[in-house]
Amino acid sequence: MQTKRMTFPGHWMPYALLAPQVIITLIFFIWPAGQALYQSLLREDAFGLRSTFVGLENFVRLFRDGSYLNSLSVTAIFAIGTTLVSMSVALLFASTVNRMIRSRSTYTTLLVWPYAIAPAIAGVLWWFIFNPSIGIIPYMLDAVGYQWNHRTSSNDAMLLVIFAASWKQISYNFLFFLAGLQSIPQSLIEAASIDGAGPLKRFWTIVFPLLTPTTFFLMVVNVVYAMFDTFGIIHATTAGGPSQATNTLVYKVYADGFVGLNLGSSAAQSVILMAIVVGLTVIQFRYIERRVNY
Description:
By secondary structure, this protein is mainly alpha-helical. The chain is built from 13 helices and two strands. It has a two-stranded antiparallel sheet. Strand 1 (42-44) and strand 2 (51-53) form a beta hairpin. Helix 5 (119-129) crosses helix 7 (154-182).
């Protein structure tokens, strides 16, 4: 079997094709990351008129700060909850839609729409739904004896941001799970059905193991999403409250840097957040990937 090789008329062509991506990466990732790393080593006044090199003092102060350690635990709970809820519901929807024949495209279109909504709009939507005064969900919960109020209850606030962030991400997960289900050979499922395996057993012994590459990929994407892309949702729903119960790392970077004008500490927090996400990604690809069946 002969393999085709791409040849270019000159040595400059491969570099010209790579140049746009390299330039975008340098401008929008490498340069801001370098600026954040450099700024994390400085102490600046609120007006940016004076800078003092302090080395790792900003990082030392962060790990002695109780509010920052609280943000670490809040972020862990939020990321785990959002990942589990969004992926579980998406897998359920994908399995249901995959069994449909005539209305599959209609349901797929309807389920994809929430992904096109901006995070801030999604946060406002769920804020109205769970508003203790005018929301439909608190009214229904009050009928069964539960007083919902995410303004005063830390647990209610965490549930609200998890629901809002998960709802926004379900569409993305749904598309990948549906594509993964449609790529599974039906002959394997039919053979298991002939052998007497029920729907649940067929799913856990055949379907889900074959979905592990998709599940692994989505797990990495959802953790990064919960760490970075949920600022607008938290800002529109709880603004990090009550009592910092939903003050995640990405929101604390904003609160300390843009509201508190503590630029050095905010830069140090962004560096730590970037290191956490990179570390989690490396761990997932290095160790969890071994359990993935390709």
